[in-house]
């Protein structure tokens, strides 16, 4: 079976859609209240060195993913341990995102349906999508990025009458501390989550382009998220924002043009579905590729279904309620994800540099 | 999975094919016997109980020992041509003189070819079995006593439907010609449009019993060589006893036989097929059907029509938009209606909800059952409209329109809005006729999903289908091109069509080897060879 490759454009789209993912609906940097947009800018700035590390790791070892790389540079035992941690992160992240989606549907659309039902159906679609392979996912993302951004732009115009820009001022009313807090929160969710792509981007056409892919993804998604957060604050005001689980949904629900264009929030669900599909698929794919590599299996497609079903189980058990989910996302995720997003890649990166130096000196 | 099915297919076919080969008259090549009596015996034996074979014996000049047997199938060969150009010259007195003077056993074939026979196409044949094949496909064969070479006279001339307006694709503007059943006429229709020696028509025969003529048409230098080769390879792999229509070929060579969506296009219009060939596609002609296949076939082609290129820009783009909207309506509208009434009635604006509620008053079914029944009814009417004999057509339309539409509402079985919806979706389907098969099934799946999970269900199913579309390829070209992979050049002729003079480059994915090929370069012969 020939190796699957994705073009730079598709990879960048995947990163963008992945990062926008659940953030569009859940929002991020809630601590900063009406200064969220500053938090996002700071968050993007914090992300830049981390992405440099990710891209550096990928470009040092072309056509390899993080599992092969860490085994190569850290030795078999340490490498496998690192790989297992990566698998766990991807797997857990996938489960959390799936739960986000389940809660979204459960709170807003199918209130009487047990939450497991939409989640189970969704994970089956994701399993199917992952079995089609990264190439198809890349093409799908490319196609639906058009839809996603098209809808976002249409909403950007429609929502203008509802926007009150005075909601954004006073800037830095609460001081700089919550803004920086929010920036770290924005780094952990969503920007740092792109660490999952280290497992998938072994199939990049040209691994030197990892820089391009990561940074174009970061730029586009950063701008989009910032815009969405400004929009939400401007439409809803920071006081109301705090009360809502899904601020984007409520913001779009305000659209009412000529009593004809109203009730458009259902379209937000489409955007969310597109983004979440890619996000879960990438997480599932990363976990499956990891397990295949670590246990030396032949084809990852054979284990997608069991892993997907386990992911469903975990996502069902991981929270007891919607409140718990939001508590976790805003208060604990930052600290939980930090080792996976920063410390592990840095260790691998240092080892990579060490080894490449060694081979270079040997060569000369 | 598809490979597995292809494998099974091959297995079944090859086993069938072996049997067919045994029953086939003579699988190996065979020399033509020298003596005329032996030839006659052999022909008699081969064509035993074939009442339409004609064996005419002629004496060549005044040498009664040299006999000629003219063999043809009555009805396939043109009698006029044979009488005027074969029999008359041979029996003509002046020619008898020439023959008497110069003829010998060594140069008799040359003599016949150069001085006597007056047909345009003559060919030597050394193999007896291929001479039989030629007779069966309408040519006449001259077996000459004392020679092991026979002469093949192209005399195909049977009754055929004249070129007429195509039934399936009608246009307001553009050529009225449609393909016919004869492959030769069809190639001539194409050749009349593309007058370039680079336009190649490769011929092959498929089907062990029917020996159907197949033509592979493409323009050398524009079409991707790899793709043409892929078409050839796939066609060669077909092993079946009969090809009755190009649909047989389609089902054997398509990339995804188990997909709802067709990855091979078809058309009945020469100008459309010529346009596709000019874009770098390959056309597959099949004798006996006016439907010509074109590959690769992409999703977007269902929304394109020849008239888009003939009419002016804005109207053309507008029509494309209409088709896209019709597609969205016909696929999703019934499902959205079911979802709205079943799960999301709070989303409907209040006044609209009131009018829907008023029209649904007294209807005994749930929206899903109602929609499903009406959908099935519509499909029945559609099928009846295609299948019925023309004279009873009136009955179907009266029953369809009046009884089912009007009376069902009056009887309180269905609501007014439902009839409107079904009519709208039905009409919209016919705008995008190439996808009518996929749409009908997709619509029912969507209605069912909408009844189970509401909007969420609809989006899930659409997600599945779009992911499936992205996974499809037609002869190596991604099915969703030009949207994904996104291509600027391709987008110029997708949902909109920009002016023709701005469409300077060919679609990148169709002409892979040299993506920047312009539409102007390829007119010369010398450049490509």
Describe this structure in a few short sentences.
The complex is a heterodimer of chains A (364) and B (529). Chain A has 364 residues and is mainly α.
For the sheet with most strands of chain A, the description reads: 2 strands, antiparallel
Count of strand segments of chain A: 2
Which structural class is indicated by helix and strand composition of chain B? alpha+beta
Distance between the amino and carboxyl termini of chain B? 41 Å
The residue ranges of chain B in which pLDDT falls below 50 over 5 or more consecutive positions are: 16-26, 522-529
Helical residue percent of chain B?
A: 40-55%
CATH class of chain A: Mainly Alpha
The radius of gyration computed from the alpha-carbon positions of chain B, rounded to a whole number of angstroms, is: 30 Å
Q: Name the poorly predicted regions of chain A.
A: none
Q: The CATH topology of chain A is what?
A: Amino acid/polyamine transporter I
* Alpha-beta classification of chain A: mainly alpha
Q: How many strands in all of chain B?
A: 12
Biggest chain-to-chain interface with counts? A-B, 34 and 25 residues
Strand content of chain B: 5-15%
Oligomer: heterodimer
Describe this protein's structure.
The complex is a heterodimer of chains A (364) and B (529). Chain A is an all-alpha fold and 364 residues long. Chain A contains 15 helices and 2 strands. Chain A has helices spanning 8-20, 23-26, 36-60, 66-74, 76-108, 116-132, 134-158, 177-188, 197-200, 210-236, 238-243, 247-253, 265-294, 304-317, 322-363, and strands at 256-257, 261-262. With 529 residues, chain B is of the alpha+beta class. Chain B has 3 domains: 36-153, no CATH class; 183-297, no CATH class; 310-474, no CATH class. In chain B, strands 1-2-4-5-3 form a 5-stranded antiparallel β-sheet, with helices on both faces. In chain B, strands 6-7-9-10-8 form a 5-stranded antiparallel β-sheet, with helices on both faces. In chain B, a hairpin with a 5-residue loop joins strand 6 (199-206) and strand 7. The longest helix of chain B has 30 residues, at 313-342. Chain A binds chain B through residues 7, 9-10, 105, 109-110, 113, 117-118, 121-122, 125, 128-129, 132-133, 136-137, 139-144, 146, 259-260, 262-263, 266, 269-270, 273, 277, and chain B through 343-344, 347-349, 453-457, 459-460, 463-464, 466-468, 470-471, 478, 480, 483-486.
């Amino acid at each position: 079976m020939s190796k699957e490759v994705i073009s730079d454009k598709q990879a960048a789209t995947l990163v963008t859609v992945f990062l926008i993912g659940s953030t569009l609906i859940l929002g991020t940097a809630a601590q900063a209240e009406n200064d969220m947009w500053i938090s996002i800018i700071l968050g993007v700035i914090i992300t830049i060195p981390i992405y440099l590390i990710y891209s550096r790791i990928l470009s040092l070892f072309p056509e390899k993913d993080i599992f092969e790389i860490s085994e190569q540079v850290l030795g078999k035992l340490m490498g496998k341990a690192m790989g297992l941690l990566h698998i766990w992160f991807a797997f857990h992240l996938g489960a959390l995102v799936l739960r986000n989606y389940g809660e979204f549907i459960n709170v807003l659309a199918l209130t009487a349906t047990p939450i497991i039902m939409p989640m189970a159906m969704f994970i089956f679609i994701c399993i199917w999508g992952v079995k089609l392979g990264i190439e198809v996912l890349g093409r799908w993302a490319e196609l639906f990025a058009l839809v996603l951004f098209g809808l976002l732009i249409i909403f950007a115009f429609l929502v203008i009458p509802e926007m009150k820009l005075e909601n954004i001022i006073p800037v830095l009313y609460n001081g700089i501390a919550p803004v920086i807090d929010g920036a770290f929160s924005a780094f952990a969710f969503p920007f740092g989550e792109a660490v999952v792509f280290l497992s998938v981007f072994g199939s990049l056409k040209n691994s030197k382009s990892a820089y391009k892919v990561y940074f174009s993804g970061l730029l586009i998604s950063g701008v989009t998220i910032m815009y969405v957060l400004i929009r939400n604050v401007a439409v809803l005001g920071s006081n109301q924002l705090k009360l809502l689980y899904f601020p984007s949904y409520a913001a779009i629900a305000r659209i009412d043009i000529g009593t004809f264009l109203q009730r458009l929030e259902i379209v937000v669900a489409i955007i969310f579905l597109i983004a979440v599909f890619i996000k879960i698929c990438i997480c599932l794919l990363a976990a499956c590729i990891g397990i295949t590599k670590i246990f030396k299996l032949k084809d990852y497609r054979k284990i997608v279904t069991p892993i997907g079903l386990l992911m469903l189980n975990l996502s069902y058990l991981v929270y007891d309620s919607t409140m718990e989910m939001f508590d976790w996302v805003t208060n604990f995720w930052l600290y939980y994800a930090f080792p996976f997003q920063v410390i592990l890649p840095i260790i691998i990166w240092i080892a990579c540099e060490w080894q490449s130096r060694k081979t270079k000196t040997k060569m000369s | 999975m598809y490979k597995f099915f292809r494998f099974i297919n091959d297995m079944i076919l090859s086993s069938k094919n072996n049997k067919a080969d045994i029953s086939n008259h003579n699988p190996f090549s065979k020399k033509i016997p020298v003596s005329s009596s032996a030839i006659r015996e052999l022909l008699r034996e081969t064509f035993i109980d074939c009442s339409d074979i004609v064996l005419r014996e002629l004496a060549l000049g005044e040498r009664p020992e040299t006999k000629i047997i003219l063999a043809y199938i009555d009805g396939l060969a043109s009698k006029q041509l044979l009488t005027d150009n074969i029999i008359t010259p041979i029996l003509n007195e002046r020619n008898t003189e020439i023959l008497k003077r110069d003829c010998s056993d060594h140069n008799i074939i040359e003599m016949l070819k150069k001085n006597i026979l007056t047909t345009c196409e003559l060919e030597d044949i050394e193999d007896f079995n291929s001479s039989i094949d030629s007779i069966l496909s309408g040519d006449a064969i001259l077996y000459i006593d004392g020679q092991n070479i026979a002469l093949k006279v192209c005399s195909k001339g049977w009754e055929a439907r004249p070129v007429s307006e195509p039934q399936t694709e009608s246009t307001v503007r553009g050529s009225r010609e449609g393909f016919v059943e004869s492959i030769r006429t069809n190639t001539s229709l194409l050749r009349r449009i593309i007058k370039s020696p680079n336009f190649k028509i490769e011929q092959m025969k498929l089907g062990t019993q029917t020996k159907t003529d197949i033509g592979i048409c493409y323009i050398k230098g524009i079409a991707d060589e790899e793709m043409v080769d892929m078409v050839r390879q796939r066609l060669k792999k077909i092993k079946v006893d009969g090809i009755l229509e190009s649909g047989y070929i389609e089902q054997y060579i398509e990339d995804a036989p188990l997909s709802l969506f067709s990855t091979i296009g078809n058309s009945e219009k020469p100008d459309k097929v010529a346009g596709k060939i000019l874009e770098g596609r390959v056309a597959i002609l099949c004798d006996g059907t006016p439907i010509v296949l074109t590959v690769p076939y992409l999703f977007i082609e269902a929304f394109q029509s020849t008239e888009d290129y003939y009419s002016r820009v804005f109207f053309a783009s507008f029509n494309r938009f209409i088709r896209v909207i019709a597609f969205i309506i016909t696929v999703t509208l019934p499902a959205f209606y079911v979802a709205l009434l079943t799960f999301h009635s709070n989303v409907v604006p209040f006044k609209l909800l009131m009018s829907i509620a008023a029209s649904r008053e007294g209807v005994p079914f749930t929206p899903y059952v109602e929609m499903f029944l009406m959908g099935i009814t519509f499909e029945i009417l559609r099928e009846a409209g295609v299948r019925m004999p023309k004279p009873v057509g009136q009955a179907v339309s009266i029953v369809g329109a009046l009884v089912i539409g009007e009376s069902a509402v009056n009887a309180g079985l269905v609501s007014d809005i439902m009839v409107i919806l079904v009519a709208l979706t039905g009409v919209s389907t016919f705008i995008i006729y190439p996808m009518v098969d996929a749409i009908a099934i997709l619509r029912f799946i969507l209605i069912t999903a909408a009844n189970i999970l509401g909007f969420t269900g609809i989006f899930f199913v659409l997600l599945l289908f779009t992911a499936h579309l992205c996974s499809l390829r037609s002869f190596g070209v991604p099915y969703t091109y030009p949207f994904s992979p996104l291509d600027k050049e391709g987008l110029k002729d997708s949902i909109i069509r920009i002016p023709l003079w701005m469409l300077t480059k060919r679609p990148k994915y169709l002409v892979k080897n040299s993506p920047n090929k312009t539409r102007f370069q390829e007119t010369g012969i010398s450049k490509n060879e």
